[in-house]
């Protein structure tokens, strides 16, 4: 087993056990992809029994709140646990959920330099058009980013990091500790904007799933697009 595969296996086992302990049920599968300085952990078939009851009662927002609170509590534990089990030095942990599909994504930002390959742009995809679409979608949700970085982690996964995106009212909400309210409002809005965007036309492929989370303190937004494989 290669070192990277060993890291992926160790990280996947740790996260699966951690979620099972704290949620009462772990995901059916945990797929870990290491693309330094990022690690993506994709969770499938992840919905606890109590969450199923809430979802059946149209209480998806309550499920989101509970998960956000629990993940905030587990942040330091995840950093320490993955440092010990997989030797991953994690700077920040981000998470988003697709409750309808019973999936989730953890985005781990590492304290190390990245692989130059993830900055290479795929042949056949218009970089200028893609980055302009990122700016246009961002402007509809808040404002055009002061800085946009696009990382092609592999042929089917693109990570977008936007810096300097919050408008003044959002900054005031963050300042007054209303970040959870802001997150609950921004998640469906950004999802709707991505679904109605021109990303699929530019990518020439369908987007299977999209996940978004924010670093409110540093004014950064992370979006991961998972796209269908090339034919």
Q: By helix and strand content, what is the structural category?
A: alpha+beta
| Helix and strand element order | HEEHHEEHEEHHHEE
What would you report as the Rg, rounded to the nearest angstrom? 17 Å
Number of structural units classed as domains: 2
Largest sheet: 4 strands, antiparallel
Q: In percent, how helical is the residue content? A: 40-55%
Q: Which consecutive residue ranges, at least 5 long each, have pLDDT under 50? A: none
Strand content: 25-35%
- Give the end-to-end Cα distance, rounded to a whole number of Å: 29 Å
Overall pLDDT metric: 93
How would you describe the shape?
A: globular
Lateral arrangement of strands in the main beta sheet: 1-2-4-3
**Alpha plus pi helix count:** 7
- Overall number of strands: 8
Give a brief rundown of this model.
This protein is an alpha+beta fold. The chain is built from 7 helices and 8 strands, in the order H-E-E-H-H-E-E-H-E-E-H-H-H-E-E.
Describe the 3D structure.
The structure is a single chain. With 231 residues, the protein is an alpha+beta fold. It folds into two domains: 3-110; 116-227. 44% of the residues lie in helices and 27% in strands. The strands form two sheets. Strands 1-2-4-3 form a four-stranded antiparallel sheet, with helices on one face. A four-stranded antiparallel sheet has the order 5-6-8-7. A hairpin with a 2-residue loop joins strand 5 (147-154) and strand 6. Helix 1 crosses helix 3 (60-86) and helix 4 (127-141) packs across helix 6. The longest helix has 27 residues, at 60-86. The radius of gyration is 17 Å and the shape is globular. 27% of the residues are buried. The model has no long low-confidence stretch (mean pLDDT 93).
